[in-house]
Amino acid sequence: MNIIRTVLWIAITAILVAFIAMNWAKVPVNFWPLDNGNYIHFEWPIGVVALLFFGLGMLPVLLYLRAVRWRLNRRIATLENSLRASSMPSMTAPEATHAPTPVTLDPTPEV
Description:
2 helices, 57% helix, alpha+beta, two-stranded antiparallel ribbon, 111 residues
């Protein structure tokens, strides 16, 4: 399964690198309109702009998935702790039915 994932990541990386290499022409990117009718703009390569906005689009999805994973991990830990607590034997001391008899040592050895 790891081989398939690695091959897919290599293919995606190769496609992105090829896209950026083929689209290295600079284009104006307008950010904010000004009062005189112009815009604040920068000239960036198309590939960089595409990757930047792809990353910005993926950010909310990644944050959501991390939150779901965190919540589910907390839920699993809570369930494991409750299962561990319910499966442990009770820690109460057993009641003694009789007192132990004292052992006396005879100072004279038997021959």
